[in-house]
Amino acid sequence: MAAVLDKDCPGTEKKQVPGPEKHPGTYVLIFLNTRNFWAQVGQLGRVEIPPGHYLYVGSAFGPGGLKSRVARHARKKKVHRWHIDYLRPHFDLESVWFTYAPAKLECSWVQSLPDIGGRCLVPRFGASDCSCESHLFFFDKKPEIADFSAHIAEESLAESLMGSGHFL
After folding, report:
1. pLDDT at 55
2. Read out DSSP for the chain?
């Protein structure tokens, strides 16, 4: 069962749901963008980003694990290291979904996002080290963790998916 803290779910904003700890794992960042803008994104060039929800999928298997990686992504000001760093100043981080599963699941998780309504607007975003179409997907409305967990390929891992929204 996934724990969720979400500003759109009345009554959850005061509950303390633990965020990711220093364990390695895979994560999904759920962002809200409220205005249309253009951004230069590294080697990808100039991209247009319309308003809506964006899910960015990544993994953290280095020192500090998920706790360090998610904390870095939660900050708006930082040196640009990953594609998401170029968009982060414009996005509000609403929630984080993650698992401590020992396998890198980001590429297989990305494959499930179109099944729950995601569209790729920026090809190769976050996917410079793999063959995925993108690791950033656009949604007209915020997807639910239950829908996502129902579509991930690792059915046995769906139970280990956790959510946190205290990074608002």
Report:
1. 98
2. ------TTSTT-TTS------SS-EEEEEEEEE-S-EEEEEGGGEEEEE-SEEEEEEEEE-STTHHHHHHHHHH-SS----SHHHHHGGG-EEEEEEEE--SS--HHHHHHHGGGGT-B-SSTTTT-TTS--S-SEEEESSPPPHHHHHHH-S-GGGGGG-EEE-TT-
